[in-house]
Here is the input.
Amino acid sequence: MIDLNQRTQEKKNFSNRLTVVYLFFGLLFSFFLFRTFSLQVSSYTDYELASLKNKTREILIQPRRGIIYDRNGKIIVNNKPSYNLILNPSKINNIDEHISKIQVLINISEEDILFVKENFKRKAKLNRELILKKNLSAEEIAKFETRRYKFPNTFIDERYSRESIYSGLFSHSIGYVGGLSDDNLEEILNEQNLSPKETIFKYSNGYLEGKTGLEKVYDKRLRGYFGKKIYEVDASGKLLDELEEIPARDGENLYTSLDLNSQKVAYEKIDGRRGAVVAVEIDTGAIVTYISSPSFPINKITNGMSSKEFSKLLNDKDKPFFDRAGQGRYSPASTIKPAIGLYGIENKIIDWEYTIDDPGFFILPEDKRVYRGWKKGGHGTINLMNAIIESSNTFFFSLAYNSEIEKLVEHLSNFGFGKNICMDCFIPDKGLLPDPEWKMNTLNFGWFKGDTVNMGVGQGYLSATPIQLAYYSAFLAKKGKLDRFSFIQDANPPKKDIFISNNLKDQDWDNIHNSMIGVIDNPKGTAGRLKNLKSYKVAAKSGTVELVSTETKEDYKIIRKVEGQRDHAIIIAFAPMPNPKYAISVVIENGESGGSVAGPVAIEVLNSLINSE
Amino acid sequence: MGLLFLYSASQGNIETIIKQSFFVILGLILMFALSQIDPDFYKNNALFFLILSILLILLTILFGKEVNGAKRWLDLGFFTLQPSEIVKIALPVFLAAYLYDKPLPISLLNTSISMVVIFVIVNLVRIQPDLGTSLVILIAGLYILFLAGLSWKFIGASLSILILSLPFIWNNFLEPFQRQRIITLLDPTADPYGSGWNITQSKIAIGSGGIQGKGYGSGSQAHLDFLPETETDFIFSVIAEEFGFIGACILLCIFFFIMLRCFYLAINARDRFCRLTIGGLSLLFISTIFINLSMVVGIIPVVGMPLPFISKGGSSLLSFYIAFGIIISMATHKKLMQK
Here is the structure.
């Protein structure tokens, strides 16, 4: 037992010690008040946000791409709906029973059932949809819809595929769409202040972007804006209530200047041969026909094609993916002659009365090299008008010989050679307008006078794409004032190219037009065969691109045994004269004769454009 | 009030509430009954209660119900008893009964005997494993020793040894998941979706409550399952989320008031046994509160500690009713023998 004294001391001791501990807890208590205060009051906004972010989930809604129309409002590329049967797994208790009930109405493959069973639990847990069957037939849809009250957690959903109504007709102009790489997706979503997330797709193929042609050039317009659905979610990511929906904004429709009818005619007439047709409305620079042949089926590229089929297309020696109209380089050959003639007039080297004697060849004074014309014995005494009609080489050799190369290059550049004349083409090629500097830099050779002489008949290094040739044709038709080309006029402010000349008069342009009309209508014209294919006057200039240089017709007969060595056939034309509305260029590779092979294609396309009005 | 909180925390689970209500009623009855008994009864039978609770723990270790890898519960048919909750009360009462007539300062022998008893029990609970409760028991035992007049020399020496042996404890006594919890505590943001999840979500819950809270039953953190263990460990987060700073303050103040009241009772208790018991039990109560709160605001690792009188869990609830029954008994039976 402890005595009283000790007890008092013990009590005091106890009180002291208890006070120490309680003081400690008192401090702790204040600390907790402070801590709770700092969490709930000072940092409230941060945690409020974190809590909000926790409990909501945004799901993106894919927009539909715009529809693409031709100039008459006919649909070229559309979003074709397909119908899928969708389940809502979280509200279905017995999936086997559910499927067997549906199977009475709609046949469902073993594969689909397996897929559903494998994913059912997970999707149910997260409250996500599950596709039971894709691409329902009209009959299946009807069967289901009439009895849909029996299946409360099953519905039919629309999904789209991007389809061109004319699969081969617009392969190079409109191009195709394809899947999106993660980087591109992130970039697109960043532009719209979104980040990559779960998405409700409108397309069966998922994310899409334009890969080539107008689909690519106008991808941003066509694409549209993603919408959002905001859901409340729990910690496991299960969707609970939908809180808000911001609908997707579908892409803008694209109204092109392409003319469906002329596309069809061009495609039909070129008939799978390697080549290109480009036609434009002269007053606006609107591209109405744009065909590169052979073509390929864009629907299959977009919506699936076997790898065998694809590699066959890829390895085809005719290179169907190659856009000859915008990227194929061809020598303009004799089609250049009107421009060279105008150069002579503009620089007063010749006038319309000036004549030369054409023996059928031209000898370069410097090295005595012989440059031949196509007609044995030549065209005799000949002026500019007839030199164009009959396509005298000697006349233009001689004219080019008397030209200064720098001036000539500048002159030709006005006609669109060596530059991009299209405002919304997909990777347009500039062709090649060679000058001495270019030759030195790339070939490491000085410029010969012979190079200039060759340029006079559109041979040698000079090359142009079919769309550049169409531009050149339209530029001649409009007498040196022309709008840059485009497929969609309202997307591009018009840009006019004007040829500032010192000496050219309206009469000079008219003379050129008349000489080009003579190419067809004059008995001596090189494209006389086209005369009866039309009911209006057409100004034209044909050309034959020599791929292998030959001295005589006999030599050519030997080399033409190999198809790839045959001459390319080219024609440029504009009509109806005297007030031309359309200009066209046609190139047929290894077609041999500009007048009789490329010519009929050009006339038929012009007919389709002019006669339809 | 606890029931009300629990209803929201358990997401409107009526069954939980009915069960808890049963324990509340049982607890109140028990508390009233225990408060009628003279303190000397506890003093005289302390050893018996301790041995009884130790036996229960041994039974649990041998035949207990395994939940989440821990054998903490003894299935008694109508409810599962957690004997470690009982020993939590029995040990301080026993120590107070053992030490109340020992002369001051407490001899090394008495200290050693007390320490041995504490460590045996702590380790029995620890191997269940139930780290949280074993720590509370350890603390409760040490409170009594401290209040009974443990010499400062001994305290100093023990603390030094404890600090020196920390690395050894870390390597040999802690389970990997326990180590992970401590690492998480030091930097919860390092792995917010892994082991830091609980603390991160708890802080978001408390913080997003703001001043007024989101309203009863509208705590998104609690109701959308972001917050773990809403009915037990993290119930304070739920209260703070739904009732805001005001609600949290009121709750803290109620606890603080109980704390002060116990301090007053302990100081003015009728004899040394009562002083020690009230002091020890009230400190046990307060410690449990602060361990729980420290846990939910991310100051200490998650150890599995309920908030007294509020969290779900029959054994814990009953044990605190018992503790307060005893405290009330000691506060009301005053003047029988003024020595």
Q: What stands out?
A: Chain A has two domains: 59-255, 261-611. Chain A has a mean pLDDT of 89.
